[in-house]
Design goal:
Two copies of one chain form a homodimer. In chain A, the strands form four sheets. Chain A has a five-stranded mixed β-sheet, with helices on both faces. A four-stranded parallel β-sheet of chain A has the order 7-8-6-9, with helices on both faces. Chain A has a two-stranded antiparallel sheet with strand order 10-11. The first copy, chain A, has about 425 residues and is α/β, with parallel strands linked by helices. In chain A, helix 1 runs antiparallel to helix 3 (about 60-70) and helix 1 (about 20-30) runs parallel beside helix 11. Chain A has helices at about 20-30, 45-50, 60-70, 90-100, 115-130, 155-175, 195-200, 225-235, 275-285, 295-300, 305-325, 375-380, and strands at about 5-10, 35-40, 55, 105-110, 135-140, 185-190, 215, 240-245, 290, 330-340, 345-350, 395, 400. In chain A, strand 12 (about 395) and strand 13 (about 400) form a beta hairpin. The longest helix of chain A is centred in the middle third of the chain and has 22 residues, at about 155-175. At the A-B interface, helix 6, helix 9, strand 9, helix 10 and strand 13 of A face helix 6, helix 9, strand 9, helix 10 and strand 13 of B.
Chain lengths: ~425, ~425
């Protein structure tokens, strides 16, 4: 069989370890004689449509190692969801023209449930069109909300960062509480699901260890019960640490981040659920409050990556190349958990139909009975995912992250006319 | 000479490494036959007044090691500034009563410029009263604004954390900028001085590397120049990373955090300068903005401590005990820099008069000519302070921080009547 080229693209929010997946894809693909060139699409699917394909052949093996420890997305990513081929046939045809022009036989799409959906559509369209393509999705999302895989690369590192940060900040608050901040609020990512919020629960054990209260997006904000819990925690311990998911909603399903907070000019505030909770606590209980918003810091914190997460990020990249070579069109390498303690897992193929556009919520059994913490079940699930450290090398006191200037393959087609 | 007891107290905001100072004080004091018991005041000076003195004798050497890698403040700290003895003689008399009741011959006060002032007043009052006491201040502040010392323990670790976080988040923003966030704003600590903001500048080099713009409290916010700089950075690079000091002020000297931002109920917002800048950028330039507020995460991030900072935190603790034994009343061990590269430093005695109530601003020569970045001079000063890593041990995927339950010495006096 003559070698064909491989195109890898990143999609959606990047993570601390998605470049480890990219590096694993490149390394694995280089080992196969059936793969020719290895391209990375610039800014995700946009680069595929625009025929902006980074040629990775100049990346030396030392650089490939450095790529694996550098956060962000080396080729760039994007938040673009393709329409159905029925609604927008031209886009899919363009994709196949680009693939044909560069003899792309393997398309690996690294993203979340939207990307799985896109990969599935491309797989089907190519098949219908008679274009020979193996399309494989690679899981990635800090939100950990993909079906078909026990965990998602990117999540374990955020989980470790947030649990560590909560443990650290709580020690600070505890030391100062008598004359300073009594209630500390930290807002974590997770617009629709509480996986990251739940991970914060690993910072402590029992009701006297921080975080004392977690507000999950899966539970409508129970204002009175929450204030009572804050009050009694402060009365008992002198302080209270609260973790709030950015996706927290009120009883009417409205995001708390959107409830009645405007600046002096009447514009909706950029502040989120954490700020709303902080202000409510201060206003209602009259307690000194501080709040933190780690925002992108949490998903880019490669300096505190989970080794488990990093290994899984690599493993799905390698497996995706194996799947591609095996002709497993429309599949995704998923992580199957074999046991919690010791933690054992393996890679299994998952049909994209089981992943596309679905969202795995935090199971109700993962919440503590009062809804403000995590259960033993949640701990058993979460604990292995943050296991192990994987520090990047440091230089001059800072992580030695690299930037990579990769040339673009020469264009062969006319420019794409974007809608 | 019969042994006398030592009292150590923490003051003001705690840091990632202040417990390393505490551990060094305890270890050094244990080695001297002239020191009997070693107490730690509960919640700083308040514990001294209330006669709440933790007895550290039960701390085993393994625990002392763990204390040195645990952030927060082991005995608790407080934000309390004593009045002058002329205005509030009773408080100082009470202090000496507590000292006498527990035969305190050495008082070590670990804090910033307020604490140096307090230590000086106590030293003088004891002398006037004929109470035999050696009072030594130990430098500590993430703000790095103490006179008499080249750097302040606590600062180097925040500096390393912020520079690392900016470098990481910038890679995230860069990868996503085409279809997502164009301007990322991060607010850092430093109410009066821009040392932490300046440290963020270590994340990159040259005008194309993040952070692209830094807003210092030493420079009034130059709105138009700032917007022009944001616009041109986004035009050139596709994104822009902005670091804002919490203490940024407008041309009239008002904190930006207080300018016209109220919630729906008319209350001043908890959000700070970072949020104001983020909203201004969005409102004026119409660009998608995200902002981060690491808050206490930055000063408690022991997982990313600077080894240099940790060594200095230990060194000032050890030196303080030496100073105490040498009868160096009213002095502080300061850090004198001998050279930048290689970085060499030593401990020198500094009279508290030179430290008390003063504030070391960022020198004008540390700012880049346009005021939005740091100069080569600033780099030469800052770079050594973030050198070296000093990871705490991890257990179950998280830093193995400990809590210490130390007994309080039995009270011998009547309760203190607090004002």
């Amino acid at each position: 069989m003559r070698p064909r080229n491989l195109l890898y693209a990143q999609s959606g929010g990047v993570t601390a370890v998605i470049n480890a997946t990219a590096a694993a894809v490149i390394a694995a693909a280089r080992r196969s004689r059936r793969i020719g060139k290895i391209f990375g699409a610039r800014n995700g699917i946009l680069g595929a449509l625009r025929e902006e394909l980074h040629d990775t052949s100049r990346l030396q093996s030392g650089e490939l190692k450095a790529l694996a420890w550098t956060p962000g997305g080396v080729f760039g990513s994007c938040r673009v969801k393709l329409k159905d081929p029925e609604q927008d046939r031209a886009t899919y045809e363009r994709l196949l023209q680009v693939f044909a022009a560069h003899d792309i036989g393997y398309f690996l799409y690294n993203g979340g449930n939207d990307s799985a959906d896109t990969a599935l559509k491309i797989a089907r369209f190519a098949k219908q069109s008679g274009y020979p393509l193996v399309c494989v999705a690679i899981p990635k999302t800090v939100d950990n909300d993909l079906e078909g895989t026990d965990s998602c690369p990117g999540f374990g590192s955020v989980a470790k960062y947030i649990a560590t940060s909560v443990r650290e900040a709580a020690l600070d608050v505890q030391a100062m509480a008598e004359t300073s901040t009594k209630v500390f609020v930290i807002e974590v990512m997770g617009r629709h699901t509480g996986w990251i919020a739940a991970a914060a629960g690993l910072a402590g054990n029992g009701r006297d260890e921080a975080p004392h209260l977690i507000l999950f997006p899966e539970r409508p904000f129970a204002e009175e019960a929450f204030f009572e819990a804050v009050k009694s925690t402060v009365a008992r311990l002198g302080h209270c640490v609260v973790v709030v998911s950015e996706g927290l909603r009120d009883g009417n399903g409205r995001f708390l981040a959107e409830t009645g907070h405007k600046d002096a000019f009447g514009h909706a505030q950029l502040g989120g659920a954490g700020q709303v909770i902080a202000e409510l606590v201060r206003g209602r209980l009259g307690l000194k409050v501080h709040w933190a918003l780690p925002d992108y810091l949490q998903r880019s914190a490669r300096h505190l990556a989970s080794r488990t997460d990093l290994e899984q990020a690599r493993a799905v990249g390698e497996a995706a190349v194996r799947f591609a070579l095996a002709g497993m069109n429309g599949q995704m390498p998923g992580i199957e958990r074999l046991s919690d303690r010791p933690y054992r897992w393996r890679i299994v193929p998952v049909p994209l139909e089981k992943v596309a556009n679905r969202e795995k919520k935090l199971p109700a059994a993962f919440l503590r009975r009062d809804g403000f913490g995590i259960s033993a079940k949640a701990r058993a699930y979460l604990a292995p995912l943050i296991e192990g450290e994987a520090y990047p090398p440091f230089r001059d006191g800072l992580p030695d992250y690299r930037s990579f200037r990769l040339p673009l393959a020469r264009k062969k087609l006319k420019a794409w006319e974007e809608a």
